[in-house]
Amino acid sequence: MNPTLPVVGELVRRGETVAYFATSRFRAAVEDCGATFVAYPGALELPEEDPGPFDRIITTLDALLNMSSAVLDEQLGQVRELRPALIVHDSFSPWGKFVAERLEIPAAVSVPSILVNQEIVTKYGANPESDAGLTREWFERVDSLCSAFAARYRVAKLAPDQWLQVYGDLNLVYTSRLFQPRAEMFDSERFRFVGASIGRRSSEPPFPFERLGGERLIYISLGTIYGDRDRFFTKCLEALQDGPWKVVMAVGRKFRAAEPIPSNFIIEAYVPQVEILQRAAVFVTHGGMNSVTEALYFNVPLIAVPQGADQFWIAARTAELGAAIVRERDASPGDLRESVERVLGDPRYSRAAARIGESLRRAGGYPKAAGEIIAFQRARCPEW
């Protein structure tokens, strides 16, 4: 959601009408951009601080099939009544492709992560837990479900792996060609690297900025989906207490730190991340694409501790470019402290982050993305 909201705001500013289909928790954010919010069916509502079925591939495919069925069963007519000139859908939302196909409407794709193909998967590997259960029998069962779905809804069949990352004739990628692994494999006509899409956010959680002093700032967050990792936050407390730095740790709603909290820590459920990153010297993160992109946009090096999904690839690429150290989920407090000290003590990490940050800023951001969408729509539907 985050990279699309500034794009939507820019489209509206340029006179376009946007209807944004999303889950109910994003209503206020969507409406603040000037778009019309449309709620998804209940089947698409997911827990806020839990990856749910998307922690493993074998459950992800079933979830995407069920979600796509819900949208096509309940909302195809709703989209038809809107008479859109263009559908823009997330690369992880295959139902957008299917709706566009059924209504014979051109579609563009919003890609909030790195582009992925088999060569990149082979190069970086994957989360071992995510691959558990990927047997021949599982592939045969899911392939049969994909065939049945295509026949039922009269759409082109996607193979099981294609459901996980759907690309189209125009793909807006919210990173730079520098950051994208093997960027030369993705042609510039279909894949437009628009860099970081960072804009004003309608509502940010309050934060005691007056408590930040002159010490170097360490920021710790596992994002919203993986905010329930109590052991990780406890290890961070042990690793970084009483050090020569200030630590801001965003822990979600569930974590409760043991008292007393170290004096150099500020612990909040949520923080205004962009504001914090502009002050940070290092970011300890799960390696989600939004978090990594926002950090690098502000030239902040990272300690990446991947938790699932594409975070392993993103963390590996950031380290490959020299802007991060990658640690395992079971890293000890000593490992975490050593990593922080190494990044803070070696200017090569911050220089690498600044190099990537420059590429993200130069790529154009949300104004570039909005312009690409409008140009694509007009080329495909000149009568509009």
Summarize it.
This protein is an alpha/beta fold and 384 residues long.
Question: Could you describe the 3D structure shown?
Answer:
The strands form 3 sheets. Strands 9-8-7-10-11-12 form a 6-stranded parallel sheet, sandwiched between helices. The longest helix has 26 residues. It is α/β, with parallel strands linked by helices and 384 residues long. It has 14 helices and 12 strands. The model has no long low-confidence stretch (mean pLDDT 90). It folds into 2 domains: 210 residues, 3-Layer(aba) Sandwich (Rossmann fold), CATH 3.40.50.2000; 154 residues, Rossmann fold (3-Layer(aba) Sandwich), CATH 3.40.50.
Order of helices and strands: HEHEHEHEHHHEEEHEEHEHEHEHHH
Count all strands and give the number.
Answer: 12
How large a portion of the residues is in β-strands, by DSSP E?
A: 5-15%
The description of the largest β-sheet is: 6 strands, parallel
Gyration radius over CA: 21 Å
User: SS-based structural class?
Assistant: alpha/beta
Q: The CATH topology of the largest domain is what?
A: Rossmann fold
Low-confidence stretches: none
How many helices? The count is: 14
Instruction: Report mean pLDDT, rounded to a whole number.
Output: 90
Q: Any idea how many domains?
A: 2
Shape: globular
CATH top level of the largest domain is Alpha Beta
State the distance separating the first and last CA atoms: 27 Å
Strand arrangement in the largest pleated sheet: 9-8-7-10-11-12
- Second-tier CATH architecture of the largest domain: 3-Layer(aba) Sandwich
Helix share of residues? 40-55%
